[in-house]
């Protein structure tokens, strides 16, 4: 008998992408797909693989008979309900940050550490943060060959990483300043936004995004660090199984709607070359190599949005650092960075229940 899959948060931004991914598959291993959301979304009709399904309200009984439950909801909802799903017999695959650093919950990227899906004493598997995920398929492949020892990352993060509020704010700012002669003196953009009724105090970001970049992502955690930067450090260590990995990250919000980009500086224990890296990336099904600098061919977020793979380019030997590569990575933060990786974990689990 084919297993049953549930999607909690089916009507949300990531849940909608999840349904698009499921609908785009040639085949799926599920006998039943159940859509779960808040009480206010219950009763909505959504077509999944040609069948009109009715969204049911989140409740303990909603998980009866479910084998795998994917959670695409805020941290506090996952923290309360993922254990409920597990107690009712489902494996909870959680896309929030509620369980990522729990020692009894594996943090999984199927290309890197699929063997961890069975090590789940709480019945929960965590999905990494979208920033970490955007580079992990490429970085994990290099680590398996050359043994990563140090990692320095600068991220250029799309506003959709901050949810619908972030996207709406960017569009509002762009509409407010479009065609205006800005940038003549400091504060022009901020002043224009204020006059348009868009004070920074009402923004999810601490500075203007239009015609700007903001070196702040997530919440401030003290000592100069923001939460997104600490996630890159802690999650990379856990996924790769390197507790002492040296990591430093600077996370920057940029005026891009979807797709995170990262400049990666990675040092390895063994000698690595550009040619060897090309060979490693070329062998990965989920990595696309776009690297011809003489012809200005490299990945950009505008050309990667909507795609499932990780795109890698600008690969070069670090001039003053032995055994070190610098490269540029782009990954759609709503697909591989959230929905797709969650679904790929679920598919890894499906044979257990077939």
From TrEMBL:
Pfam families membership: Semialdhyde_dh, Semialdhyde_dhC
Lineage: Bacteria, Bacillati, Actinomycetota, Actinomycetes, Pseudonocardiales
Organism of provenance: Amycolatopsis minnesotensis
Similarity-based family: Belongs to the aspartate-semialdehyde dehydrogenase family.
Catalytic activity: L-aspartate 4-semialdehyde + phosphate + NADP(+) = 4-phospho-L-aspartate + NADPH + H(+)
Sequence positions that bind NADP(+): 11-14, 40-41, 160-161, 333
Record's protein name: Aspartate-semialdehyde dehydrogenase
Coiled-coil residue spans: none
Binding site for phosphate: 100
Name of the top EC class for this enzyme: oxidoreductase
Domain Semialdehyde dehydrogenase NAD-binding stretches: 4-120
Entry function: Catalyzes the NADPH-dependent formation of L-aspartate-semialdehyde (L-ASA) by the reductive dephosphorylation of L-aspartyl-4-phosphate.
NCBIfam families attached to this UniProt entry: asd_B, PRK14874.1
Positions contributing to substrate binding: 157, 253
Pathway linked to the protein: Amino-acid biosynthesis; L-methionine biosynthesis via de novo pathway; L-homoserine from L-aspartate: step 2/3; Amino-acid biosynthesis; L-threonine biosynthesis; L-threonine from L-aspartate: step 2/5; Amino-acid biosynthesis; L-lysine biosynthesis via DAP pathway; (S)-tetrahydrodipicolinate from L-aspartate: step 2/4
The protein's Enzyme Commission number: 1.2.1.11
Gene label: asd
InterPro entries attached to this UniProt entry: Asp_semialdehyde_DH, Asp_semialdehyde_DH_beta, NAD(P)-bd_dom_sf, Semialdehyde_DH_NAD-bd, Semialdhyde_DH_dimer_dom
Gene3D superfamilies listed in its UniProt record: Dihydrodipicolinate Reductase, domain 2, NAD(P)-binding Rossmann-like Domain
Subunit structure: Homodimer.
Active-site feature positions: 130 (acyl-thioester intermediate), 260 (proton acceptor)
UniProt keyword terms in alphabetical order: Amino-acid biosynthesis, Diaminopimelate biosynthesis, Lysine biosynthesis, Methionine biosynthesis, NADP, Oxidoreductase, Threonine biosynthesis
